[in-house]
Design a protein that fits this description.
Elements (H helix, E strand, L loop, with lengths): L1 E2 L11 H10 L17 H7 L10 H17 L2 E7 L4 E7 L14 H14 L6 E7 L4 E7 L2 H9 L10 H10 L7 E7 L13 E2 L5 E6 L7 E9 L7 E8 L5 E9 L2 E10 L3 E7 L8 E7 L15 E5 L6 E6 L4 H9 L3 E5 L13 E5 L10 E5 L9 E7 L7 E2 L18 E6 L3 E7 L2 E9 L2 E6 L13 H13 L11 E2 L4 E2 L8 E5 L5 E3 L4 E2 L6 E9 L2 E11 L3 H4 L6 E4 L2 E4 L5 E6 L1 H23 L16
Parallel strand pairs: 3-4, 3-6, 6-8, 7-33, 16-17, 16-18, 18-19, 19-25, 26-32
Antiparallel strand pairs: 1-2, 2-35, 4-5, 9-10, 10-13, 11-12, 11-14, 14-15, 20-22, 21-23, 23-24, 24-25, 27-30, 28-29, 28-31, 31-32, 33-34
Helix pairs in contact: 1-3, 3-10, 4-5
Amino acid sequence: MSFLTPLALIAGLLAIPILLLYMLRLRRREVTVSSTFLWQQILQDREANTPWQKLRRNLLLFLQLLILALLVFALARPYVIVPAVSAGQIALLLDASVSMNATDAPDSTRFAEAQRLALDMVNTMNAGDVMTVIRVADQPEVLSPYTGDANALRAAIQNAEPSHASADWNAALTLAAAGSAGSADFNAVIISDGGGMLNPSDDSIQLPAIPGDLQYIPVGTASSNVAISALATRALPGEPPQLFTQITNYGNEDARVIFNLRVDGSLFAADEVTIPANGSIPLALDELPATFTTIQAGVTLPTDATTTDYLADDNSAWAVNSTSGGRRALVMTEGNLFIEQVLRSLPGVEAFRGDINRGLPIEQFDLYVFDGWLPATLPDADMLVINPPRSTPLFAVGAESQGTATLNPRVRRDDPRMTFVDFSTVNILQFRQVTASWADTLISADGGALLLAGEQNSSQIAIITFDLRDSDLPLQITFPILMSALLDWFTPPSVINAPDGLNVGDTLPITLPPGADAINVTYPDGTTRAVQGAAFTDTATPGLYTVTALADVETISTGQFAVNVFDAGESRISPRASIILGDTVVTTTVEEEIGQREFWSWLALGALLVLLIEWIAYHRRMTAPTLFRPLTRRSVPA
């Protein structure tokens, strides 16, 4: 055993004044007695008042000297030489990816086991060693900069939490290597199960080369895991929505699971399936409710299962109705390709073409575009009517107006829908004279209105009074600008556009709708937070998120998106025995360095316990026993 601060042993000389105090102090206790004549110890007390008496056996003196000895040895910081993983300048990379939540560790999760191993490294650091702790998840995080303070390193490791995301090892190693500049004794230590970045050819991790030495400490023992590896929905015009999901067994034994599907929170289907070892089974459902909003799929093991599922994070997946993220427009035309092309070019719009010979389908759409054709009964929905062939209860169609020389189109500039619309160069051969008492004229000509728009019976309706093929509008930039302005008015664009969902850690672009002044996001746990900026990055928890656009505290637009754990590298939890760093294969690290294990904290704890014993002994000694019983009065017979 050696000492890091041997000069602290000089503090042991404090035992001398303690001994002197015991030799000089008065050995007297105050006791209340009935008479000094009855107190025979007074003579001995007078003898004790004389200084420089011979020391007697005293429990308090022994305890106080023991406390001093323990504290002095603690200040001297005794240590013993033990094997260590690394020494010098150490960059500790602590894997906090989703696979580290696996429960096959001896006591708890793999991450808890990684924390224990990291604390052992801190406990065996040499006096001159420094260490930084980097938490490796979707974004590497420096928990502690380079320091030799063991307490700060322990606190950083103990306060770390695992994530539900994949690990970005390239960024983490780049961050670690950045701190090695100018150091001749740099070492990087990875504590991980080796998952997250698989090379399909040899099933190992491919990492960029970094300077210094790399040590790899694997955690985990098992490979048994069942996961939902894919979940998606789609809908074709005139058909019910369809669901596709895939269940994967990453273990080495066949797994029997119960698959359950919830639609809008209610159980919709459940079935028991067997997944072959290291295989997958696709499942499809063709008859989902047409108006569903959200779907949650899950797998659980039956009570009599013979296999174990060590990772629960990938047992559930969510999906949002792909038709709810955008606007669905039905185009009824005899073959006007200009309309179909412009609708398909606009973001957030799904355009479907109908058959005018079969009439309107039963399925509902967000917008109906009628080009030169009208159904017998107009739908109770938003409509864009182009070149109406006849009058309806909503509007009247008159004669055609001809003559481009006297057209002189005029745009209503005070209407926000016409902010960027320019009709000065548009040429029109002819148009119909359409009137509607409920509509505003947005674009007019000398012979009548070219564009009418307004609201009727809770539906927004716009009427273009001419055939697009009788003009050069489709050939000008004004056409997509006009259509985009009208579509934004019909149905304000969704605040988000992520129908296929995201992986944990992905970034979601957010669009602030016109008139909105705030964006709130409701997390899967029900908490709501405000979002600043045009991107949402806090997708750390799998589940369903709700985005709400507000204008003066009033909700004007909402949207939902799903965040899932779809990463085969993380779901394949079988620990890797080696990793590849550049061209070097790194296997499991063996403790080859020399480290120091201190135990001053145990000495300090022992001193505290002895101090407690000394306090109890002192108070017991200061409590004197009762020397006399109180007199009792007795009655004497007369």
